[in-house]
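Quick one:
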Amino acid sequence: EKLDFVMEIKQAVKNLQDKKKEFSEKERQFKGQIGYLQQKMRHTDLIKDQIKTLSPETKTYTSVGKMFVLQSNDAVVKSLDEDKGHLQRSCEEVKKTLDKLTESLNEDETNL
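Output:
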C-alpha cells in the first residue's frame, strides 16, 4: 500500500517533468511566433509612414501574386491598416494560448 503510494508519486512527478519539457518547447515556439508577428507589425507601420510622406500624385503599387496593381496612397494605407489588424489579432490569439498553457502547468504543479 505504501509502495503503491510512492510509485504513484514518482509517476506524477515524472508526468509533471514531461509536461514541463513539452511546455518549454511550446513556449519557445509561441514566443518566436509573437516576435515574428510584432516584427511584421513594425514593418507595416514603417511602410505606412513612408507611404504617408509621399505626394498624392506619386504612383504606388501593391503586389497581387506575380502582378503589381496601381493603387492610390489612401488605398495602400487602408490595406496596411487591415493587415496590421489581422497581425494584432493573431498575436493576441498566440498570447492567449501561451497564457492558457502556463495556467495549466501552474495548476498541475499546485495539484501535485
